[in-house]
Amino acid sequence: MIKFDNVTKRYETGQDALARVSLEIGRGELVFLTGHSGAGKSTLLKLLTAIEKPTRGQIIVGGQNLGRLSRGQVPYFRRNIGIVFQNHQLLFDRSVFDNVALPLQVAGYAPRDVARRVRAALDKVGLLSKERQNPIALSGGEQQRVGIARAVVNKPSLLVADEPTGNLDPELSAEVMGLFRQFNAVGVTVLVASHDLELIRRMQQRVLALQAGQLIYDGVPAHEPQPA
Ligand code: ADP
Ligand code: ADP
């Protein structure tokens, strides 16, 4: 599903945000990306979603070589990727329903299909009863779940999240992680970037760790019993 071959990203400012990173993520995997602030997590996700271009190396996502994508092809490529942001980026001038509907409307779905899919997505994140509310009236955890519904409403085969629990307390974070596990269970490939190593350890999944732009770890961390 995802292949990075010797990828380096150097921003204009000169520093290598990623240095010779090679990795592969198979279809249907659930993988966490970790590392300290500045390690290169966001950069890796931006390369993966064709927001940024690599300075060197090759990136293949869903069989597409991103280096060969034309500017016009990028929006079509992105339609197959659901993206969840830390600050959820919801629009407070419209309802929960309309926030989730947005990607479908942009893609030109018929209103009846939009309604059906939006309700299915809201149901999956447990927010069907709040469809008419303005997201500003929701809690932080609920807002993040609306962001996740919006990311999956188009049924993407790849779901990518950048620090999705950054603003949430541990309980809500676990809930959000549970949702990612749920989507993964129905076949979605999921990549979650988070610096919360404690939370990640508890998930018992494959972890990729970056440090100063280099991939320093790839495996399933040993389980450590949590204090009661
Ligand atoms: P530091 O000592 O500054 O914490 P490390 O080299 O230990 O730096 O780790 C850098 C990052 O890589 C950590 O934030 C952690 O997320 C990740 N990491 C390192 N080793 C492992 C490991 N064995 N399992 C999971 N993640 C790891
Ligand atoms: P993380 O998501 O792990 O915090 P980032 O990918 O945001 O790491 O950043 C990796 C490195 O690249 C950092 O040193 C950061 O300052 C630098 N960086 C990130 N984005 C830019 C940019 N647009 N221009 C210049 N440097 C950047």
Automatic annotation (TrEMBL):
Q: Which UniProt keywords apply?
A: ATP-binding, Cell cycle, Cell division, Cell membrane, Membrane, Nucleotide-binding
- Record localization: Cell inner membrane; Cell membrane
Main location group: membrane
> Does Transcription regulation count among this protein's keywords?
no
Name one matching Pfam family: ABC_tran
Q: GO molecular function of the protein, one example?
A: ATP binding
Gene3D superfamilies, A to Z: P-loop containing nucleotide triphosphate hydrolases (3.40.50.300)
Q: How does it sit in the membrane?
A: Peripheral membrane protein
Q: Which GO biological process entries does UniProt record here?
A: cell division
Q: How is the subunit organization of this protein annotated in UniProt?
A: Homodimer. Forms a membrane-associated complex with FtsX.
> Which purpose does this protein serve, as stated in its record?
Part of the ABC transporter FtsEX involved in cellular division. Important for assembly or stability of the septal ring.
NCBIfam families from the entry?
FtsE (TIGR02673)
Q: Spell out the family assignment given in the record's similarity comment.
A: Belongs to the ABC transporter superfamily.
According to UniProt, the name of this protein is Cell division ATP-binding protein FtsE
Recorded name of the encoding gene: ftsE
